[in-house]
Each structure stands twice: as structure tokens, then as C-alpha cells.
Specification:
alpha+beta; Double-stranded beta-helix; 7-stranded mixed β-sheet; globular; binds succinic acid
């Protein structure tokens, strides 16, 4: 395959052409892993994948082990490794409509997610905005880096439900709660990156509640309100996007109600996070 790459911004994201994700060989997989570590978000248009091909493509990333989401069955998927992400005129809330890293509450969080689009809203919208955590960290001043460098924060899987959707997590679903360093080393290139997100991070350990709340709010605001660390992906039917779930976070914009958007996500796990 002859891979062609066009960056979305100088900092994050690339459109990749010349690749059929249903037929990846070892050389292409290695090239895509390098590209993902470099760009954080890879966009592939006009892909034709069934569940098995989607899962095979995902297994080329992380440690190759597919992530089984606690909500897979509730999402309408018969396969525990495939998460349905669908919003319709009947939806009261939509998964991913807020800044987050996928299930950062896990002790060994998702390393990469591959989202495949089946239906886009008929009137436009439904973009996903991504932010580079390497660049977000790089833009912090030296005194703030010193302040957060040795801190850890708790990530709680019930938070998207209670704070995001205004509901208790569905009965029978179980979520992790894990403390991770605020600044971690990227598993591939060792670059330091900021690892807190509004979706899951509840508090910083070892400081007062007031300090934790304001410090986290300052970091969330820095990530969410700094367009130069972000890129915005527009979807078509059959677009597949891979994101590095350690080096980026994202917000799926729900601006298309009452229209339908339907996608499926397969994710792979990685190892435990290491402090930078
Ligand atoms: C997600 O957070 O995994 C969903 C992203 C999207 O729907 O664009």
C-alpha cells in the first residue's frame, strides 16, 4: 500500500489515504503505529469494514487486546468488543458529548480507539473535536509544570453518568476508579503529556478540595479553550478515525438533534500509565 498523509493542523491530526484498513499488512500496521504516535488522530475515508475487519484493524494497535466496554450490550451491540454510538430523535443524552478520554478510569486505559461511521446527520454537524495532550502540556508555564509534576488524580467511571448525563450508571454495569499521575510519559515516544479530563477526573490527591477543584478547572479550561492544541474532524459515511487515547482527548459535538448519527467503536488496551 502506498500511504499518503495530509496534516489537519501543524500540531494534531492527519488525513491518510492509500490504505485499505480491511487488508493491513505488517509493514503498513507498523507505519500507522508510528504515524499515530506522531499525529494523535488519523482519518481514513471510504473504508468498507465488517465487525471482524474492524476488530482486526484495531488489534494492530496498543497491545492488540480488544477492550470490552461495560456498556457494549446496553448500547445495542451483540459483540462485547464493539460499542454502538448512536443518537436519534429519542436520545436524552449522547455518549462522548463533552471533553473526555475514553474510560480513563481503568488501571490500564484504552490505548487507541477506532470509530467507524455508518450514518451522518442529514443536516450536517456531528463533528468530533480532538485535543493534543502533549501540546497542552508543552504550553504550560514552567511553574505550573513544577506544581503538577508529582501529583496524582482520581478518575471515576461513574462520573460521566452522574455529572454528564444526570443519571446513575445503569444497574449491572461496573466502572473502575483509578488514580493516575497528572503528567505521564507517552508509551511510545516518552514525551510528557497532561492526563486529566473533565469527563472522568474527580479530584487531585493530597491537596485540599478547594485547591483540587480550582487546579483541575484551570487545566480543563486550558485544554478546552486553546484551539491551537485542537483539530476538528468532519465525518462522512464509511469514515474511520483512529485516535491515540493516551495522547489526546475528544468531544463529540451533539449539534444535530433530532437527526441520527450512528457509529461503532472498537478499542484496544495498553499498559499502566507511567509518570513522566
Ligand atoms: C467517543 O467518545 O468514543 C465517541 C466519539 C464520537 O462519537 O465522535
Amino acid at each position: 500500500m502506498s500511504l499518503s498523509v495530509q496534516n489537519i493542523t501543524p500540531v494534531i491530526g492527519a488525513e491518510v489515504s492509500g490504505v485499505d484498513l480491511g487488508q493491513i499488512d505488517d509493514v503498513t500496521a507498523a507505519a500507522l503505529r508510528r504515524l499515530l504516535a506522531d499525529r494523535g488522530v488519523l482519518v481514513f475515508r471510504d473504508q468498507h469494514l465488517d465487525h471482524e475487519a474492524h476488530k482486526r484493524a484495531a488489534a494492530c494497535f496498543g497491545n492488540g487486546q480488544l477492550h470490552c466496554h461495560p456498556l457494549a450490550a446496553i448500547s445495542g451491540s451483540a459483540d462485547p468488543a464493539v460499542l454502538t454510538i448512536k443518537a436519534t430523535a429519542n436520545s436524552a443524552f449522547v455518549a462522548g458529548d463533552g471533553w473526555h478520554t475514553d474510560v480513563s478510569c481503568d488501571p490500564a486505559p484504552i490505548r487507541a480507539s477506532l470509530l467507524y461511521m455508518h450514518e451522518v446527520p442529514e443536516n450536517g454537524g456531528g463533528d468530533t473535536v480532538f485535543a493534543s495532550m502533549t501540546e497542552a502540556y508543552a504550553l504550560l508555564s514552567e511553574p505550573v509544570r513544577d506544581l503538577i509534576g508529582n501529583l496524582r488524580a482520581v478518575h471515576d467511571g461513574a462520573v460521566p453518568w452522574r455529572q454528564g448525563y444526570g443519571k446513575e450508571p445503569p444497574a449491572g454495569t461496573e466502572y473502575n476508579r483509578t488514580a493516575h499521575p497528572l503528567v505521564i510519559a507517552h508509551p511510545d515516544n516518552g514525551k510528557p503529556l497532561l492526563w486529566v479530563n473533565r469527563g472522568f477526573t474527580t479530584h487531585i490527591e493530597g491537596v485540599s478540595r478547594l485547591e483540587s477543584r480550582h487546579l483541575l478547572e484551570m487545566l480543563f479550561h486550558h485544554i478546552e479553550a486553546t484551539p491551537r492544541v485542537q483539530c476538528r474532524v468532519r465525518w462522512d459515511k464509511n469514515t474511520l478515525v483512529i485516535w491515540d487515547n493516551i495522547a489526546t482527548q475528544h468531544h463529540a459535538v451533539w449539534d444535530y438533534f433530532p437527526h441520527t448519527r450512528h457509529a461503532e467503536r472498537v478499542s484496544v488496551v495498553g499498559g499502566e500509565l507511567q509518570a513522566a
